[in-house]
Fold N-acetyltransferase domain-containing protein.
Amino acid sequence: MFAELLTVERSEVFRDLLASYPFKPYAEGALFSGKTRKETKNGKEPAKTWEESLLSLLVASIGRAVESGGIARVYCADKKVVGLCVTELDDWASRVLGRRAARVSHLMALGRPEVQTIIKQLILSQTLRETPRGTVLVARVPYVDLSSINALERCGFTATQTSIVMARELEESLPDSTPLGHYEIAAAGPDDVDEFDDAEFDINGGFLGWDAGLPCTVAARVHRDWLRVYARERRLLMARDHGEPVGLLAECLKTETEPLLGFRVGSIDLVKTANSYRENGVATDLISRGLAAFRGEGARLAELTVDSMDVPLIRSCQSLGFMTVGSSLTLVNRRT
């Protein structure tokens, strides 16, 4: 039924939905100036517009969520679907916490902002009633989507993390930069994660959403296990100075965007510098190495998520050509 929501009253859907969709900044031309529109394959069929491509990507994303065990709940009015909430079980978080953990992956509604808030609150309330007690629910919402944020707050969700999303093209050469330090950078293995000093590499509680409020020792273990997931895939870079770990970068390659948007996206999910090495060029060196790897894998764009309070890291990203394209708020609800 979610397909009905995305096809009826299309202009209204685009106005309210694409305003908060993660790939919208890349479609508006701020980064690409329309250069990435897919070419017509045989010269007979018109190329898809950005709106059509983004809509197809969204439908595919919701479809995958439902097929993998997620639950889609709809809200109907006048025999039409006007609201949708999709929740997905987070198996890894559930194992780590020893309790059920899930995320709200999609939350949308039609109508004016105040109407959207009411619809979203109603469908969230239904979702919470049907969610077993003891479940931790996490939602990550773009800051521009105030109707979703307000609905989540009214349903007992509290904020744990504010993030800025930055992006840059990978066709261009990197801007000239002169890092202050010269560090050895290599892929880290799962065992290398244990070398990190928790006092030096302090990942904020609430970074993952469901890790908010955990005791410090438990949170440190959770974050190490999270980093090992990247290390097993050779997606964790470590910077060393005379053998000592001084920085780390966790990244992944999003290939699911290629069929519809025509390009891959390299995602830098975490950059951390040891407190004693901050603003010494560690983050710049790590990000530069990550960008080079993305280009080698055929990515067209790199995006990076950073804590909105980490001003030194934001400056480092800007020096490497990154532009701010959005921001998000992570909220959590612990069903008791």
